[in-house]
Amino acid sequence: MALETTVDQPGLKTGYHVPGNTRANLKSIWVFTVLWNLVSAPVLVYVPPELTRQPLAALGFLFPIVGAGLLAWALVTTARARRFGDTWLDTGAAAACPGGSWHATIEARLPRPEDGSRYAVSVKLTCLQRTIHRHNDSREERETILWREEDEVESTSITFGSEHASIPVGFDIPSDALETTAVGKGEGVLWVLTAEAALPGVNLREDFDVPVRRIAGSVASTAGRPEGAAVSDDDLARTGITVEPSPDGMRFTFAPARNVSFAAGTSALTAIFVGALWMQFYLGFPWFFRIVTALVDLLLLYVVIDLWLGVTVVVAGNGALRVRHTVLGLGGTRRIYAAEIAAIGLHINMQTQGRYGTPYYEVRATLKNGRKHSLGDGIRHKRHAEWLAAQMRTAIGMK
Asked: Considering only CA atoms, which of 248, 239, 228 is closest in space to residue 396?
C-alpha cells in the first residue's frame, strides 16, 4: 500500500495525501517489459529454421507476441502518466472506517468540458483479498474481489482549477467490512479506489490504496442508497433480464449469453486447454496427465455451454419460489417455500481478477438449514442484483 502522508502545501488541501499508483508502477512496468523482450528476442532468430523439422516450434513465437503486448501496455501507461500528471487522493481522515461514510477528493489533470459537452468519471471502491503463491523462484499474485461499490461522477460535479481538477467521491462502508491487513506487496486484505473515464486520446485509469481501519467509538452511518433502489425495465432488458407478472406472481427470466465478453474469454481459455490436451496426445504424455486434462476440459466445456445457452426462470409468489435452470431445454424445477428461507441476498459468483476486474453477482437464497440455492447469476450491476433480491423477497412475503 502506498504510504499516506499529511500535506500542507500551496495548491494542495490539508489532509492525507495518497499518490496514484500509475506513476509509482511505471518504472517496474518498463523494467519487466524490457527484460521480457530481451529474453524472448532470440526466438525470432532460432525458431524459424526449426519450423520445417518441428512445426510445434512455432509455439515459441508466443513469447515475442506477449512482449509486443507488454510494450504497448508500457507505452499507453507512459502516455497516461504524462497526460494526467501527478494524481493523488486527498482525504481528511487517516482511514476509512467500517460502518461509516467515507469522503475524499481525487486530484488529477483533467480536460475541462467545452461547448456544453460532458463526461463522467466512474469511481469504484473495492475490497480485495491478495494471495501470493510461490514456486521455486516464481511468484504468482492474485487479487480477488470481496466487495465493491460503484458511482458515476458527472463532469458538472467536478471542480476544475488552473492545473488540476477535483473529483469528489463518497461511499458508505458496511459495518462488517474487513480491515486493511496487506502491507506493501504482501498478502492480506486491501482496499482500492479506482477512477476511469473515456476521454479523447488517452483514457483516465488510475487507482489509489485506501486504508480501512476500525476506530474506537465510531458511529455507524445509516445513509446511502437504499437496498433495492428502483431499476427500470429497460435497464434490465439491456442486460438480458426481464421481470413480468405471471399468474403465480412475478416471473424473473435470465436469458442466455448475457455476458458476452466473459463467455468469450472463458471460451478462449477452454480452447487453450483443449489445445493442451491435443498436444499431450501428440507428444505422447502419460495417460494420467491426459485424463486429468480431459476432465478439466469437460468441466470448462460445461461452463462455456452454460454461459452461452443456460436459461434461469424464477417465479416468485404464493409464498414460494419456483426455480428452473435449463441448458438446451434440459433441466428441472425446484420449489422453495418462504418458510424455509433465512435470507435472499447477493454473492459474487464469478469475476475477472484484479482491482480493475469485473464482479458478477448471484442472487442467492440461504435456507434455514444452511443450504444455498441460486436464483439467478451473472448479474453485472450490483444495484440490479440488489433490486432483484428485494423484489423476490417482496413477492413471497419476506421482509
From this structure: 248
Please provide the distance, in angstroms rounded to a whole number, between the alpha carbons at the two ends of the chain. 41
Query: Which of 327, 304, 329, 314 lies closest to 388, judged by CA?
Result: 314
Q: Tell me the C-alpha distance between 38 and 320, whole Å.
A: 63
* Cα 309 to Cα 125, 256, 259, 380, 387, distances in angstroms: 33, 5, 11, 17, 24
CA distances to 135, 210, 214, 391 from 97, rounded to whole Å, are 36, 11, 5, 30
User: From the CB of residue 82, how many other CB atoms can be counted at a distance below 10 Å?
Assistant: 12
Q: If you count them, how many residues does the chain have?
A: 399
- Enter the pTM of the model: 0.82
d(C-alpha 211, C-alpha 99), whole Å? 14
Statement: residue 204 has pLDDT above 50: yes
Contact by Cβ (8 Å): 115, 233: no
Measure the CA–CA gap between 96 and 103, rounded to whole angstroms: 8
**Per-residue pLDDT, 199:** 93
Cβ atoms of 320 and 340 closer than 8 Å: no
Instruction: Tell me the backbone φ, ψ of residue 173, rounded to 5 degrees.
Output: -95, 130
CA atoms of 287 and 278, how far apart (whole Å): 13
Residues 6+ apart with CB under 8 A from 319: 337, 338, 339, 396, 397
How much is the pLDDT for 94?
56
CA dist., res. 22 & res. 386, Å (int): 33
Residue 227 scores a pLDDT above 80: no
- For residue 10, is pLDDT > 80? no
Give the sheet arrangement for strand 138-154, strand by strand. 138-154, 120-135, 188-197, 204-209
**In this model, does residue 141 exceed pLDDT 70?**
yes
